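Now for one record:
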Amino acid sequence: MPGLKGSQGWSVALSADGNTGIIGGVGDLVDRTGAAWIFTRSAGVWTQQGNKLIGSGVLGAYANQGGSVGISADGNTAIVGGINDNNAEGAVWVYTRSGNVWSQQANKLIGTGNIGQAYQGISACLSADGTTAIVGGVADNTNQGAAWIFASDNSGGVGGGSGGGLESKSLGNAIVKRIYAKVQNNLNGPDDYHKMQKVVRRFVNEQTMGLGDVNALKLSNMMPDISSIGLIAYNSTPNDIVSITNAKEVLSTDFTSNQQCKAVAFATKTQGEIYDHTKPICDRLKGASLDNVETVRIAGFDFIKYTMHNEKGQLEYATSFSIGTKSGRPDFTVQSTWLLKDYVNEENMYNFQLWAATPELVTAMVTDVLNKVQNVAPIKKNSNALIPNTYILSGKREATNLNMIIANTGSSTSGYFLVEDKSNEDVTFTSSRKVPFTISQNGKSSVSIEMSDKYESTITMYVNNVIKDVVYMSDGSWYADFNKGTTSVSNFMVTNDSKRVFTTEEYPVFRNVELKAISKDYVSIVKLLKGGGMGADVSAYKGIKFTASGGHSLHVVLVKNSIANWKNQYYTDITLDQDQKDYFISIDKFIADGSQTQISATDISAIVFSVQTSNGSTNLISTTLSNISFTKADLNYLASLELKEMQLFPNPVTGNRFSCNFVSGRAAILTLSITDASGTLIQSQQVNAVKGNNSIPITISISNPGIHIVSLEGTQDKYQSKKLVVTKY
């Protein structure tokens, strides 16, 4: 084939109605990459539709795309084989038509398990509906040959396991430190499976470890493997979980199709207690919604099954359970319960959280875990998987309220929430309060809890004095990051502000901070906008406003979840006054190095305020940050605070009076001066400015008409001078 030229017609296929055809040309292009062409017939005339099709991701020369072609019955899906791709491993490419435009679907398809130069794609065929393909590889395993079946997956993706499903209880500043470290190390953003390690399972007969020796089975031996159905497994283990939770071991596997996560197996080993962070508790107050809870039976055991939409709107099916062992006992236990408190503590507990895009994938993972465990010793069920008749579907913190949706499958009833609050990051105690509620029968009810600017709360729902549900709410943490070799922080304090008034025109950043340090370079003050570092959509807001003091340069970064490289995050710089002052930064002032694109503030996970000292010498930092919010307020008004502009009216002035109008960010004593064109002072007077809009009447005593200069300044403020034209006294 390398010696061939275009070779159009090497392979051909027609749609069922005969009006769409595809033609392969294995020798097209100089390097014989090959291509395929689509032709359509209308009123008896054949014309080419779009450009020739050349699949992306080719490896090596002489891919010979077009060696085989196939097309669906309706002519809207096509498949093209390239037998020499990647040194004759071979591959196929799938295309779909929308209107008159053809586009490649996902990455090229390569069957797994091939041996040697398989020549995959030497033949290829699509089912009538275009959802199933069969691909031949004539030379696989030294010309023994093989075929591979591919089926399109119409299910969506799910969230990966690298996050660890954290925050079912307080972890202090561990989450913000963890997230900020990932940001700084260019590990932010969605999982990039191209950079992650594939999981290759070792096929171990667990019985060789000794039948009945329950302590011989390790967490790694229990992990499910569903890669045989065509999914590719990647190691997504968040190893730092061991240092911040009660887990002694942790393993996580993401099962993917075309680089999209389809299923996750997340497992931990704990001793004497259940792993205390579970997906339903973690996710429901972070943007996810629980659609349904039910009991399912798998291999003779009952499991709690959850149907959820995650914070991205993706549909997920999930279950959680624990395998338990005890020294001297010859069997395992399995438990799957709704409330963590209902788990019976075991000596060793292997805790699984499994979720996927389809319920079948969840069932497959559970079945595989049970089979691996039962190959060693029997499983004895330890508890019933009972589901509640009243539970929290979802919750969202909106300004100072936590608004929740409650599902109730029973009669109308009342109950209360026991809310255990931690007001800010620095307090070491919680305060408790009861919030009563009433819910309607066989339906959904809305319940709201006042949260003010509190940091975190554990919320336990009681009905008839019985616990029905437990959820955990966390606002994003404040955190100070600095170089210990160049900086000493003497005080970093987070405080609540009970007097602050919130409006519907702002997205508040809760609580205020005060920093005292000695530094040669910087201290970064980091605030997560949401618990768990979830991205916040603040694209509807025009800018950020806050009150600050302390001098020095302030480097402000908006961290986007979709940007992996720290150096590509959007930032801006301002200079702080020594005394407290209100600041406004327009969103369009944030720039990213190497990009001319304006920031799309749809996924902001954190805001970073870096106080930067100059010249490398030791400097005292004494900075406050308060009243921070993203705002929809009038840009002209807020911008005038920055520009220090004043307006003179009337101008020209024909009498002896005019007014000086300006906006001040604070109450201040200013001096207004009038000079002539030569710079000679004509008159000056004190102006007592108030915070906000000011209109100062001025009486002038100018003997000579002409152009004069009006100046307005104080110890910390200097407004742009204005020309005043005096036509007649």
Notes: Confidence is low (pLDDT under 50) at residues 202-210. The chain has five domains: 8-151, 185-381, 390-473, 478-637, 644-726.
